[in-house]
Design brief:
Number of strands: 17
Radius of gyration: 28 Å
Structural class: alpha/beta
Number of helices: 12
Strand content: 15-25%
Distance between the termini: 47 Å
Oligomer: single chain
Order of helices and strands: EHEHEHEHEHHEEHEEHEEEHEEEHEEHH
Helix content: 25-40%
Shape: elongated
Largest sheet: 7 strands, mixed
Number of domains: 2
Length: about 450
């Protein structure tokens, strides 16, 4: 399978009297990154920025602080190197940039934010007449010691190189062992690679809103007002979650397409199909897996809503119709509300839908492969809520994919129950093997009204 990488940002905080050590640190970060990229799937990127004081002395104290806050909070690894100086305080400022950087990183560490804090202090000579800068450095060492925050002394730049190299490798190894989400998501997202250049590696295909649903007085002018096709809100939320999980594992070779501009060479890519009921291309692709698939969708018509059918895993191998209770939830809670524009009351409801997530290996592909097999992913709800919830499940219930570690070609199929409340999804659970009676009960008005009543008491 194609290796995916996660990039960690490294922030190096160092005043001017340790320029040699800073150069060493940047060299060590690059060397460690080269090694860990292939061995662990982690690469390191040094965070940089330009034009801070004294280069831009007219920036206000607040502006400087905002820039440093953002840059430090974006980092995963914070490396501090100090000798006799704690940074130059520019005219009109109260603190040096180094002081600000350290304060933010320490605050993140103490507030349990995920940051790896590596600090190094070059040995100070005995000095009876300490300057203000050296006093600040010695004070910081005492404060870190009192807060039980790790730091290392070193005698020479060569010793510093050895210490940092060892500590950085150890830190990344510990990070990899502790990043359970990365590991679980990597078990789910597996991508084959054809034996030629094909980009993007993954095509994410979603359906735009059909013209018949555009409530415009002059629909012929609809596209004149927009840069891209109109997209259902729930589909958009799903695409956000998908992008987040892909970037979490360091995979960036993907692109979003709507069904009107699917690339001609999509057969040479891995594919993620979003919202099958409104996506005819997705239904065509799903038909390739009809013999092994546990799901099938029928699109919405003028007379009926979209339909999902789920196949039991027992010997009967029977198909059951899974109905969405969403419309009943909406009607029960909004039947007495006035129409018109959206307002906050319309979002203060509880609702449910059902959805599927699946992964198949495309064994019908006859081209030469450089790695593995191409994958087809399907993510869809009966209604838009289910589609959003399926993507939420990948991001928040990733433990479900642990069982597929080292099973790159094994198919994955989940039937999901999505629960929404007060403008957010708060639970998605697997209901693949629930009996037919469960789905009948979840669609009954008695159960729906009970759930609405319980939600209103929260």
């Amino acid at each position: 399978m194609t290796q995916t990488y996660q990039t960690l940002k490294v922030f190096i905080s160092s005043p001017g009297d340790v320029k040699g050590e800073r150069d060493i640190a940047e060299s060590v970060v690059r060397d460690v990154s080269d090694t860990c990229r292939e061995a662990l799937g982690i690469s390191l990127e040094i965070a940089r920025w330009e034009k801070l004081p004294p280069e831009t002395p007219n920036l206000s104290e607040e502006q400087i602080q905002d820039i440093i806050n953002r840059k430090v909070r974006e980092c995963n690894v914070f490396i501090l190197i100090l000798y006799k100086r704690y940074g130059t305080v520019a005219a009109g400022q109260k603190k040096s940039n180094t002081e600000r950087e350290v304060e933010i990183a320490v605050d993140m560490l103490l507030s349990k934010r995920q940051i790896m804090f590596l600090s190094y202090f070059r040995d100070l000579p005995e000095n009876a007449d300490l300057g203000l800068q050296e006093k600040k450095v010695r004070k910081l060492r005492r404060e870190l010691d009192a807060k039980m925050i790790w730091f290392r002394p070193y005698a020479t730049p060569d010793v510093f190189r050895e210490l940092l190299t060892h500590d950085l490798y150890k830190t990344i190894l510990n990070y990899r062992l502790s990043t359970s989400k990365h590991k679980a998501l990597s078990a789910f997202w597996q991508f084959g690679m054809v034996d030629r250049d094909a980009h993007p590696r993954l095509a994410v295909v979603y359906p735009p809103v059909d013209r018949e649903f555009m409530r415009e007085e002059n629909p012929d002018m609809f596209w004149c007002k927009r840069l891209v096709p109109h997209i259902v809100f729930e589909d958009f939320k799903a695409l956000q979650k998908i992008e987040k999980s892909l970037r979490m594992i360091g995979f960036r070779d993907f692109k979003f397409y709507n069904t009107s501009n699917v690339p001609s060479d999509i057969r040479e890519m891995n594919r993620l199909w979003v919202c099958i009921p409104r996506n005819s291309r997705a239904r065509q692709q799903a038909a390739l897996y009809a013999k092994v698939s546990r799901f099938k969708f029928e699109p919405r018509t003028r007379r009926s809503e979209a339909k999902l059918f789920w196949r039991s895993s027992d010997k009967s191998n029977t198909w059951r119709h899974i109905q969405s209770p969403l419309a009943k939830y909406l009607y029960e809670q909004r039947k007495s509300e006035p129409g018109g524009e959206w307002d906050g009351r319309k979002g203060k409801i509880v609702a449910k839908d059902f959805a599927i997530i699946s992964r198949f290996s495309d064994v019908t592909h006859k081209g030469s492969m450089a790695e593995g097999t191409l994958k087809d992913y399907f993510l869809a709800g009966i209604r838009g809520l289910g589609t959003w919830g399926a993507a939420w499940f990948i991001d928040r219930r990733y433990d479900a994919f642990r069982q597929y570690e080292n099973k790159d070609d094994e198919s994955i199929q989940f039937l999901l129950e999505v629960t929404y409340g007060d403008e957010r999804i708060f639970n998605v659970r697997v209901v693949s093997d629930e009996p037919p009676s469960y789905f009948e009960e979840e669609n009954s008005l008695r159960q729906i009204r009970k759930n609405i009543s319980e939600h209103s008491k929260r």
